[in-house]
Amino acid sequence: MYQDDLNEQQLIRRQKAQELSDMGVEPFGQKYERTHNAKQIIDLYSNDDHDTLEEKQIEVSIAGRIVLKRGQGKAGFMHIMDRDGQIQVYVRQDRVGEDQYALFKHADLGDIVGVKGVLFRTKTNELTIKASSYTHLTKALRPLPDKFHGLQDKEEARRRRYVDLIVNPDARRVAMTRPKIIRSIQNYFDSKGFIEVETPVLHPILGGAAARPFITHHNTLDMDFYLRIATELPLKRLIVGGLEAVYEIGRLFRNEGMDAKHNPEFTTIEAYLAYADMGDMMDLVEGCLSTVTQEILGSYDINYQDQIIHMQAPWKRWHMVDAIKEISGVDFWKHMTLDEAKAIAKEHEVHVEKHFSFGHIVEAFFEHFVEDKIIQPTIIYGHPIEISPLAKKNAADPRFTDRFELFIMKSEYANAFSELNDPIDQKERFENQVKEKEMGNDEASEMDVDFIEALEYGMPPTGGIGIGIDRFIMLLTDTPNIRDVILFPHLKNRT
C-alpha cells in the first residue's frame, strides 16, 4: 500500500510505530513468556474474593490484544483479549515506571501487549490484573472496526476472516468448535475399528460421484488430472486390499454453483466396512452423528435457526418411492415406460432433461415434492439404479438400489450404499455413464478400467457412506451459511 492510499488513522499509527523505534522499542516485538491465558485466570480465581486475592498475591503473566482502554493522569484500565477470553488490567505509573507507563499511554486499540502483575478485585468487584510490568509486543497499523458495529458486511467478514475473528465472538466460537466436531467424528470411527487413511487429491479419472470437476495439468507426466470429487473409488480399492474398515476425512472439490449450502471445496468423511450393507450404514450414521451431537452440545437436541432438531436414534427410514407417493400421490412402484414417466412429469410440472431416464424422473419428483418437507433426521432409501452407479441393485426390485441419503432441515447430510462389488455389473454401469456424458450430462462418471480390475480380484460385500462435515458443523453451531463454518471460503473478486 502506498503512502497516498493511507487514511488519517493509518498515518497516525505508522507515525506511532516510528516513535516506538525512536524510543528504542521494537514495534513488532519479540517472544513473550505467558503463565496463563484469560480463561485460565477466570476459571481458577473467579471464586476468590478481594481479601483472599490480597492474601495470596497471585502473580500472572498474560499477553493479548488491547480491545478497550480508558484512564487519564497516572493510572488507567484496559481489557486484553487472547484466544480464550479477555481480562481487565490496571496500569499505574508508580508500579510500572514512567517508561512503561508512557508505552501504555502511547498504545492504541488493537495493539498486542504483554502484562505481568498480581490479581485483585476492583471496587466494582471485577477480577483484574494489577500490572507490575508492561511490554509492548506488536503495533497494529490498522484500527479495529467500531466495537458496536463490528464487521456488519458478511462478505467483508468472510473476506477478512482475521478481523472477523478479532471482533466477533461467534466467529471464534465456530472456528474453535469445528475441530472438536471433527475430532469427535474421528474418535467414533476409531472406536469402531476403522483405520484412517489418506488417498490422492489428484485423480486421473472422474468418478465416485456425480459432479463437475476442476481440471489441472501435471507438467512432468504431461497428464490432465481432476481435483477429486469423491474419495470413494480409492477407498474401495483398500477394501479389496484387505483393510476391511477404512475412512478418510478430507477436502473434495466440485466446480459447481455456490450458495448457502455449497462451497467449491468442502470437507467430508467417507467410510467403508467389509461384510456390511446399507442397513449397517444406517446404524453407523445414526450412531455417529447422535453421539457427536451429545458430546459437543451435551444434548441430543439441536436448536438450529429456532427449530429443535432431535438427533437421538432411531430416525425415520422412508423409501423414496413411498415418500413421493405420500406427498405427491404419484406411485412409481407401478411399472411404466419412460414415455409414461415423462407424461406424468409433465402433468406435475416436473422438469425433465434430455438424458433423463425413469430413475432420473423419480429423483426429480423427490427433489420437487419431498426434499424441502424434511426437517427431522430422515433416512431416504431405495434410490433408482440410474442415479446410483456404484450401489447394489435391490434384490426385490432391480429398478432400485440399496442406497440411502440422510436429510435434515431440507438438506442432504450423508449418502450411503450397499456397495456394488460385481465387476461385470460395474462395467455396464460405467458404460451407461459414458453414454450419459455423450448425451450432455457433465456430471456423469468416466470408465475406470483399473477399478474394474480391482473388483475382479474380489471385493467382499461392503457398506459405504459419505457424510458432509461442513453441513453437520453448520447444524451443531447454528450457522445457516456454509461460508461461515469455513475459515477461508471462496468469494468473488472485489469490483
TrEMBL record:
Domain of life from the UniProt record? Bacteria
**Which SUPFAM superfamilies does the record cross-reference, listed alphabetically?**
Class II aaRS and biotin synthetases, Nucleic acid-binding proteins
Q: Which cofactor does it need?
A: Mg(2+)
> Has UniProt tagged this entry with the keyword GTP-binding?
no
Q: Which InterPro entries match?
A: Aa-tRNA-synt_II, aa-tRNA-synth_II, aa-tRNA-synth_II/BPL/LPL, Lys-tRNA-ligase_II, Lys-tRNA-ligase_II_N, Lys-tRNA-synth_II_C, NA-bd_OB-fold, NA-bd_OB_tRNA
Q: Where does Mg(2+) 2 bind?
A: E412
Molecular function (Gene Ontology), one example: ATP binding
EC number annotated for this UniProt entry:
6.1.1.6
TM ranges? none
Aminoacyl-transfer RNA synthetases class-II family profile domain: residues covered: 180-489
Write out the catalysed reaction.
Answer: tRNA(Lys) + L-lysine + ATP = L-lysyl-tRNA(Lys) + AMP + diphosphate
Residues at which Mg(2+) 1 binds? E405, E412
UniProt cross-references to CDD domains, sorted A to Z: LysRS_core, LysRS_N
Enzymatic class? ligase
Q: Name one Pfam family in it.
A: tRNA-synt_2
What Gene Ontology cellular component terms go with this record?
cytosol
Keywords attached to this Swiss-Prot or TrEMBL record, sorted alphabetically, are: Aminoacyl-tRNA synthetase, ATP-binding, Cytoplasm, Ligase, Magnesium, Metal-binding, Nucleotide-binding, Protein biosynthesis
The annotation note on the cofactor reads:
Binds 3 Mg(2+) ions per subunit.
What does the entry give for GO biological process? lysyl-tRNA aminoacylation
> Where found?
Cytoplasm
Family stated for the protein in its record: Belongs to the class-II aminoacyl-tRNA synthetase family.
Oligomeric state and interaction partners are given as: Homodimer.
Q: What is this protein called?
A: Lysine--tRNA ligase
Supply the source organism for this entry.
Answer: Mariniplasma anaerobium
